[in-house]
Amino acid sequence: MRGPAPLSLYIHIPFCKSKCAYCDFASYPGKEAAWETYFAALCEEIRAAKDGLHRVETVFFGGGTPSLVPETYIAGALAAAREAFCFAPGAEVSLEANPGTLTMEKLRAYREMGVDRLSIGVQSFDARLLKDIGRIHAPGEAVEAVRMAKAAGFANIGIDLMYGLPGQTMGAWEATLKTALSLPLTHISAYALIVEAGTPMAAREGELPDEEDVLAMQRRCTRALAAAGFARYEISNYARRGFACRHNLVYWRRGEYLGFGCAAHSFFGGERFRNASDLEGYLRGARGLERERVDGKAAREETVMLATRTGEGLSLENWREDFGEDFASGREKVLEELRRAGLLEIADGRVFLTEKGMEVHNAVVLALL
């Protein structure tokens, strides 16, 4: 008899203290008056999705800045999720947090309610760069946030870092990596800056490091983290053994997840859909929008694009089970060309990109499609 199917939950908290210069996420500063109304609607949405056929393996509170709001709001949303869904023993519960919004009281409350993984938005340990991109914390606050989390009992602590920032030098990036590796971390996400249209950063493209410098920063990061025991398990994510983010792996493996809150996306029952991105629209009940069934060619393309981002790569057995065909069939020539170019390998029943291949991921995916 088959047990309940695995499911992940994403819960979006769209509030922040201020908007960063590069951010185009659904996040809203100065909306404290809406917090109570929002969380009431959020909990109602979660309870309305009550489901006894799935078992929740991971939960992720993202934002915005979940750690900005009072911890009682986070506890209420997590309690609503536990009421509506069956949680697996040892389910991973992650929460995004920003330095400057964390206190020991909050951290202890998170631990008590069942949060077992923190993802702290550090971005840089360079004071000038932090101010320049609109972050509200100082480097010392970021260091203190990690140390407080450890003292509060968190064994799984990650940080986000960014490179390719305006005026960022290799020396500044190396200093940030050195500081990060001095801290009790289990996970590091390192993202190259992507300039989004309509953000303040879009007017400063002329100040950004060139492509070769950005690539050099990425290579330096991968080497430094590998030497310190952080394996690269996805293009932008590194973890100590056993600490890869289980929630994010669900996305890359095309597992099922439900998103709750403003701007949250879902993939469930073979369909992708989303909630309204604007706060007012969400509160008016604009949810489950733009439903799109993902099967056939679209499912194949998604699988190639997502699986090749990961260190584990694309499983040939899973491809046969999902699509009833041999992945190599019709791709023999391009697979051999990519292998000879040092961009991918085929071993142990999977296709995975090399470090060189990950640097040109989009080009490899287009070739495989």
Please tell me the overall pLDDT: 93
**Roughly how many Å is the radius of gyration?**
21 Å
Query: How far apart are the first and last residues' alpha carbons, in Å?
Result: 37 Å
Ranges where pLDDT stays below 50 over 5 or more residues in a row are none
Structure notes:
The chain starts with a strand and ends with a helix. It has a 9-stranded mixed sheet, sandwiched between helices. Strands 12-13-14 form a 3-stranded antiparallel sheet, with no helix packed on it. Strands 15-17-16 form a 3-stranded antiparallel sheet. 38% of the residues lie in helices and 25% in strands. It is built from 14 helices and 17 strands. The longest helix has 17 residues. Helix 1 packs parallel to helix 2 and helix 6 runs parallel beside helix 7. It is of the alpha/beta class.
Feature tags:
369 residues, alpha/beta, nine-stranded mixed β-sheet, three-stranded antiparallel β-sheet, 14 helices, 17 strands
Mind sketching the topology for me?
Elements: E1 5-13, E2 15-16, E3 28-29, H1 35-48, E4 51-63, H2 71-84, E5 85-97, H3 104-113, E6 117-123, H4 127-132, H5 139-151, E7 157-163, H6 170-181, E8 187-192, H7 211-227, E9 231-234, E10 237-239, H8 246-252, E11 257-260, E12 265-268, E13 271-274, H9 279-283, E14 289-293, H10 296-307, E15 314-315, H11 316-323, H12 332-340, E16 344-347, E17 350-353, H13 355-359, H14 361-368
Parallel strand pairs: 1-4, 1-11, 2-3, 4-5, 5-6, 6-7, 7-8
Antiparallel strand pairs: 8-10, 9-10, 12-13, 13-14, 15-17, 16-17
Helix pairs in contact: 1-2, 2-3, 6-7
